[in-house]
Automatic annotation (TrEMBL):
InterPro entries: NDUFAF4
Region named Disordered: 195-214
Species: Penaeus vannamei
Domain of life, per lineage: Eukaryota
One of the GO biological process terms: mitochondrial respiratory chain complex I assembly
Protein name per the record: NADH dehydrogenase [ubiquinone] 1 alpha subcomplex assembly factor 4
GO cellular component terms, semicolon-separated: mitochondrion
Amino acid sequence: MGKVMSALGRRVTKPIRDFNVESRAHREITKEKRPVAPRHESTRLIIEESIKNQPEEVKKSLEKKDDILLNRLKQIYVTSEDPMLTKEIPDNPERSLPSDRSFVADPEYGFYEPKAVPYGKITLRNALHAIGMHQQDPEQWTAKKIAYEYKLDEGLTEKVLRHFRTFVLIVPDDAKKKRITPEVLRSTPLIAPHSIKQLPASSSNAAEKDEKAS
């Protein structure tokens, strides 16, 4: 609750704080004598003690602007003719910097796929493809054929095909229909993920169409 009230307070007072802010800032910048930046507490005490021990003439000179000193400072120029030293970083062959700085796109599946896959293993891309082909044509792409194609264990392949499915996009024939009954889902065959299945309109929708036509 306190954070909410604090945020509301800042939002309410923001227009007042920002009112004529440019003019106020310009007025402060153009001031001939601006306030000195605050010093640290320890530094301030040391400076005050050193000023107290000085004679009155020195104290008055510290409070006035010394034009002679400022003119002398303007005549001072510092130049350097020494060559700039460049420190070369020795190359470490074990930790060399990348020579190719081109843009690297993110992998399709969130991680880099291995170039070599051992027997009994399969990449995510091939697994999705095999499951999709089995959904599309289970008689042709059986567990035995997929296991032989990708060098997998046949028993494990059967379990994967039984318990895993790829996403299926089901588009009803009626665009206004918002609900698909479980009966329609059960009667719809699983297809490959790149396909779109147009479902037939239900009997109720067909009846409504007949009434509208009559």
